[in-house]
Design a protein that fits this description.
Calcineurin-like_PHP; single chain; transmembrane; hydrolase; Metallophosphoesterase; six-stranded mixed beta sheet; 413 residues; 11 helices; elongated; alpha/beta
Length: 413
C-alpha cells in the first residue's frame, strides 16, 4: 500500500511538472514529444532509485535519482507558489485581449432589403476573414516560459546550496544543560552527541572519517550515537563504518538503534555485532554507570519504536527501573516522541535525533506534526530533551535550512 501511494505521488508530481514545464512552454511537435519522454524517463529513474537502494544494490543510480528527486520537490514548490501571480497575469491578459479586439464595422443595408444572415449575426463575411497574428511567441507561451525559467533557476540554486550544506562539515553546536540532580563534582561532564550519520550509497569512508575526526577534536567524556547510523547491510557498508574504531572519549562510545537499522537488508543484529567489534557499545534497553570525579550518573538507552515489529522494541522499565533514587539519568532514544514514556520513568535528560531538523525546508513544518520537537533543546513533560539535526542525510544529498550537526553537550548542576 505504501509503495502504491509513493508511486502515485511521484506520478502526480511529474504530471504537474510536465504540464507546467513542457505543455505550457512548447507548441505541439517534436520538441514537446522529446521533452515528454524525458519527463517519463526521469520519473522512472526516481522509482528505480528507491527500489535499488532498498534492495541494497544499484549505487550508480543513487546520485542522479536522488538529485532529481530534490529538483522535483523544489520545482513543484516554486511552480505552486507561482500559480497565484500566473493566474493574475492570465486574467489581465484576457482583459487586455478583449479590450484590444476591434469592434465590427457597421454595414449599410437599404431599407426593405433583407439582411444577410452573416450580417445579422455580426460575423465578417468570407472575404473579410480576420488575418491570423504574425508568427512568433504568444503571450501565453511567453508567460509559461517565464514561469518555468523562474522555477528552474530557483530550484537549481536551492538544490545547489543544499548539496554544499549536506556534503560540508557538520556544525559544532555547543549546548549547556543544567540538571538539578547532578552532583556538582560532575560539572562540565561533556557528551559528544551525533545522530543520523546514514552511511549509505551516497556516503564514502571519508564521511565517517570526518565525523570521527571532528568528534575526537571535542575531547568529550562520552560519545553518544543516537541511531540511524546505516542505510544498508554490513556486507556493503562495513568498510564505511570502520573509522568508528578510532573514536576517542574518556568513558566510551555508546549507540542505540534508530528506525533505519531495522530496514537494513542483513538485519539489525549484524550491525550490533559489527559495532561491538569496533568498540562501540550498544545500549539495548539497558543502562551503565558513568563515574566521574567521585560522582555517578546513569546513562541508559532504549531501542527505537520501529524495533517493535521485529520483537526488539523499546523497554523503558528494563532500562530504567530499579536504579538508585536521586541519581540523575541521561537517556539515549532515537525519536523525540519517546520522551512521553521517558517522563513516566523519571528521566532527567533525553538525547535524540531522527528529525534531521527537517533536512529540506519546509519539511520542518511536517516533522512537527509527528514529533513533539524538530531540533534543539526543549522541556516536555518535565524532561529536558535535546534533539540533534544529525550529521548526515537521508535520500537526496541536500540540506536546506538544517545544516548537519555534531553536538558538544556540557552538563552542570
Amino acid at each position: 500500500m505504501i509503495v502504491l501511494v509513493f508511486v502515485g505521488l511521484i506520478l502526480l508530481a511529474h504530471y504537474y511538472l510536465w504540464h507546467r514545464l513542457v505543455r505550457s512552454t512548447t507548441a505541439p511537435g517534436r520538441l514537446r514529444k522529446a521533452l515528454t519522454w524525458g519527463v517519463v524517463v526521469l520519473m522512472a529513474l526516481v522509482v528505480a532509485t528507491f527500489a535499488s537502494t532498498r534492495a541494497d544494490f544499484g549505487t550508480w543510480l543513487a546520485w542522479p535519482g536522488y538529485l532529481w528527486l530534490a529538483m522535483v520537490f523544489y520545482l513543484f514548490l516554486f511552480l505552486a507558489v507561482l500559480e497565484i501571480p500566473r493566474a493574475v497575469a492570465v486574467v489581465l491578459l484576457r482583459r487586455a485581449e478583449r479590450r484590444g479586439a476591434p469592434a465590427p464595422e457597421p454595414v449599410a443595408v437599404l431599407a426593405g432589403t433583407p439582411a444577410p444572415d452573416d450580417v445579422l449575426a455580426g460575423a465578417p463575411s468570407a472575404a473579410e476573414e480576420p488575418v491570423p497574428p504574425p508568427a512568433g511567441v504568444s503571450r501565453r507561451l511567453f508567460l509559461g516560459r517565464a514561469g518555468a525559467a523562474v522555477a528552474g533557476v530557483g530550484a537549481l540554486a536551492t538544490v545547489g546550496y543544499g548539496v554544499s550544506s549536506a556534503l560540508g562539515d557538520p556544525v559544532i553546536e555547543p549546548v549547556r544543560i543544567r540538571l538539578p540532580k547532578l552532583d556538582p563534582r560532575m560539572n562540565g561532564l561533556r557528551f559528544a552527541v551525533v545522530s543520523d550519520i546514514h552511511l549509505g550509497p551516497l556516503t564514502g569512508r571519508a564521511h565517517t572519517e570526518r565525523i570521527v575526526r571532528m568528534v575526537n577534536g571535542l575531547e568529550a567524556d562520552v560519545v553518544a550515537i543516537v541511531g540511524d547510523l546505516v542505510d544498508g547491510s554490513v556486507a556493503r557498508l562495513g568498510p564505511l563504518a570502520r573509522p568508528l574504531r578510532s573514536l576517542e572519549s574518556r568513558y566510551g562510545a555508546y549507540f542505540v538503534t534508530g528506525n533505519h537499522e531495522y530496514f537494513a537488508p542483513g538485519g539489525f543484529l549484524e550491525w550490533i555485532d559489527e559495532l561491538d567489534e569496533l568498540g562501540v557499545r550498544s545500549l539495548r534497553n539497558e543502562r551503565v554507570e558513568i563515574a566521574h570525579q567521585g560522582a555517578v550518573l546513569d546513562l541508559a538507552g532504549v531501542n527505537d519504536l520501529n524495533g517493535t515489529s521485529q520483537g526488539d522494541g523499546p523497554d523503558f522499565a528494563r532500562a530504567l527501573d530499579g536504579r538508585p533514587a536521586g541519581r540523575p539519568v541521561v537517556l539515549l532514544a532515537h525519536q523525540p516522541v519517546q520522551v512521553f514514556d521517558a517522563a513516566r520513568h523519571g528521566v532527567d535528560l533525553q538525547l535524540s535525533g531522527h528529525t534531521h531538523g527537517g533536512q529540506i525546508a519546509p519539511f520542518n513544518l511536517v516533522v512537527g506534526l509527528q514529533q513533539p520537537m524538530v531540533s534543539g533543546l526543549a522541556t516536555i513533560d518535565g524532561v529536558q530533551v535535546y534533539t540533534t539535526r544529525g550529521a548526515g542525510f537521508w535520500g537526496p544529498p541536500v540540506r536546506v535550512g538544517a545544516p548537519p550537526e555534531i553536538t558538544m553537550l556540557e552538563l552542570h548542576a
